[in-house]
Amino acid sequence: MPPERRTPSRRPSASPGASTCPAASERVEQSHIVQLARSLGCAVTVLGVTRKGSACPSCGAFVRGHMGTQQTPGIADLEIWMPPRGERPAALLKWEVKAEGGRLSPEQREYRALCEVSGVQWGVGPFAVFAAFMADYGFLKHENLPHYRRPT
Question: How far apart, in whole angstroms, are the C-alpha atoms of residue 90 and residue 82?
Fold first, then answer.
């Protein structure tokens, strides 16, 4: 019997009749955000990383790394150090990467609240939301984003 085939989840397209594409994972969304931020002259610190694993010192067998970040629960995935732009001074942006439809945990909501009362910029969402934020901030133009990367 052939193996079961899985169909990737699909998100609704921006316009009727347009093709749909598979929903991107948070890891893919994060890599696109990091790439865009760096291409716009920002420095990026990635806080949420997975451990790759290593050989056991006693027997040499490969031991998988911890899949979690081993960070304090709730902290943002990225710190983005934005250079000055026009009248805006340099700024730090904390960004929580979420795939389409992703939700914040209670710890992430608490971290967001702490950032907001402390005056630290904080954002959440997939690549399209980040790109729109950067356009609003003056780093790029909304019309220069591909139609499928514009927030709906």
Answer: 6
**Which tokens belong to 107?**
């710890």
Q: What residue has token string 């389409």?
A: 100
Confirm whether 18 is domain-assigned.
Answer: no
- Phi and psi angles of residue 15, each rounded to the nearest 5 degrees, phi first: -135, 145
The pTM of the full predicted model, rounded to 2 decimals, is 0.72
What CATH number did the domain enclosing 52 receive?
A: 3.40.1350.10
Report pLDDT digits (tens) over 28-60.
Answer: 999 999 999 999 999 999 986 655 667 777 887
- Residue 6 in any domain: the answer is no
Please, which residues have CB within 8 angstroms of residue 130's CB and are 6 or more apart in sequence? 33, 36, 37, 95, 123
